[in-house]
Amino acid sequence: MTLRAGSRALFVAALLLGGAAAPLWGQQVDTVDRVLAVVGYTPILASELDEELFARFPDRTTLPPEGPPRNALKKQLLQELIDIELLYQAALKDTTVKVTDEQVNAAVDQQLRNVRQKFPSDAAFRTEVQKTGFQTTDEYRAWLTERQRKELVRNQYLEGLRGSGKLKPVIPTEKELKAAFEERKTGQQRPETVSFQQVVISPSATPEAKARTRALADSIVRELRKGADFAVAAKRFSQDPGSKDLGGSLGWFRRGIMHKNFEDAAFGLRPGIVSDPVETPFGLHIIQVERIQPAEVSARHILLMPDLRQEDADSARALAERARAALLAGAPIDSLQRLYNDPLEERDIRDFPADKLLPTYTGPLGGLKAGEVGEVFRLESPGDPLRSKFAVVQLIDRKAAGEYQYQDVKDMLRNQLGEQLAIRRYLDRLRSAAYVEVRGS
User: Fold this and answer.
1) Under CATH, what is the fold of the domain 38-188+404-441?
2) Alpha helical stretches, state H, 3-136
3) Partners of residue 373 on adjacent β-strands
4) N or C end of the chain: smaller count of CB under 10 Å?
5) Cβ atoms 31, 9 nearer than 8 A
6) Neighbouring residues of 96: CB distance < 8 A, sequence distance ≥ 6
7) Could you read off the pLDDT of 170-213 as tens digits, one per residue?
């Protein structure tokens, strides 16, 4: 058996003292767990290492065999568990780190879905869970909840360190980059990719239509401030399909997720206060913040978009055709992007897998060579054809499928490794200042 929950807590004191089957509160219990390491006053148990193995290799097919390969993996995981505990203990001392039950439960639900889908049936999933020592899936969920809470706390702490400039990326050397590439390359084939630039043009509403939308937004704000129910108003008026049926709820979000105008307004509101209409490229937003915690808010919104006419859509297409003609005449695409491109649409798309392209892009890009310009095409707007956008693309490069080369991933590897080295340097400082004892693996 493996010690869990309350049972595990009962044995901590005895295990730290080296007791194998010490009587606790008059009870005699057979102990098969053992301490592998101690971080501060917190033990890391053999059962925790086994649980981490299950979390990382839930279907067991890629788990190294017993013997030296498995032992080497366990030694590596034990060091990672020590690092994880060091970060968690540091995060607990930071009063700005706040994690809610809502965030934890959402993360646990997602993790359970990810693990469950690796098994053909619920019965197979339960059987595998029991092989790891969990008696029920509820027990597994309880363990996972604790694990996810700690992970969210650590992640929020690291984000705070980055935001404050205390965790600056380290620039890896060329030697380190090449060593990391050799270590990580698996012979996996790189798919065919395309790189291209685009000009995407959206229909623009008339000044009269924008004025009508502004007047409607102002009237809704007045009624909300008199006490009207925000969720009811969102369901009636909002044109955001993602949040309309949820009463306008956007859940929790941090800066860097929404448009800057939206974020500036939301992070400047007190809970319960209704904002003035806020303009973004999407339209006008009426915002109400529900809850606040450090660096994060939970809010609702109502999105109002000006009405469009067929003439507006026709004008957008005609403008896209003129942009294409300018490209064919030799105009630089970046100049046209500055003039016309929808701010919500990407300008440059680099090394995108050709087989992942939306069907809308497949045709215009299909026969192009580097430097060539495609035909104008429509980006459909589901549910509202008049809001469809029009795009023209210019191919930069096309790479055939093949094995990944160092130059293909060098930039991505530099960012990843720089972040890892920065965290490693910070963890080394934590280790030097903390009590860490390793007893085995």
Assistant:
1) Triger factor/SurA peptide-binding fold (1.10.4030)
2) 5-16, 46-56, 68-92, 101-116, 122-131
3) 394
4) N
5) no
6) 160, 294, 295
7) 899 999 999 988 888 777 788 899 999 999 999 999 999 999 99
CB 58 within 8 A of CB 128: yes
Q: At which residue do the structure tokens 């009811």 appear?
A: 232
Q: From residue 276, how far is each of 99, 246, 283, 338 by CA, in Å?
A: 30, 21, 13, 29
User: How far is Cα 99 from Cα 148, in angstroms, rounded to an integer?
Assistant: 10
What string of DSSP letters covers 131-145?
Answer: HTT-SSHHHHHHHHH
Rounded Cα–Cα distance for residues 277 and 280 (Å): 10
Could you tell me the residue ranges of all domains in the chain?
1-33, 38-188+404-441, 190-204+309-403, 207-304
Cα–Cα distance between 44 and 85 in angstroms, integer? 9
190-204+309-403: same fold as 38-188+404-441?
Answer: no
- Inter-residue contact 346 to 398 (CB < 8 Å): no
**What is the overall mean pLDDT for the chain?**
87
Which residues, 6+ apart, have CB-to-CB distance to 37 below 8 Å?
43, 44, 78, 81, 82, 436, 437, 438, 439
- Describe the strand order of the beta sheet including 35-39 as a list of residue ranges: 42-45, 35-39, 436-438
The residue behind tokens 């009590």 is 435
Q: Which residues contact 426 (CB under 8 A, 6 or more apart)?
A: 161, 166, 167
pTM recorded for the entire structure: 0.60
Taken as a whole, the chain contains a residue count of 441
207-304 architecture in CATH?
Answer: Roll (3.10)
Residue 365: strand, helix, or coil:
helix
Phi, psi of 341 (to 5 degrees): -65, 135
Greatest C-alpha distance within the chain: 91
DSSP 8-state secondary structure symbol assigned to residue 227? T
Cα(157)–Cα(168) distance, integer angstroms: 14
C-alpha radius of gyration, the chain, whole number: 28
pLDDT tens figures, 130-175: 876 678 888 889 988 988 999 999 999 998 888 888 888 789 999 9
Cα–Cα nearest to 53, from 126, 117, 133, 118: 133
User: Which listed CATH number (1.10.8.80, 1.20.1260.10, 3.10.50.40, 3.40.1350.10) goes with 190-204+309-403?
Assistant: 3.10.50.40
Which segments of 225-280 are extended strands (E)?
A: 249-253, 278-280
Span 46-72, average pLDDT = 80
Q: Which two tokens stand for residue 328?
A: 């064919």
Tokens of 345: 């649409």
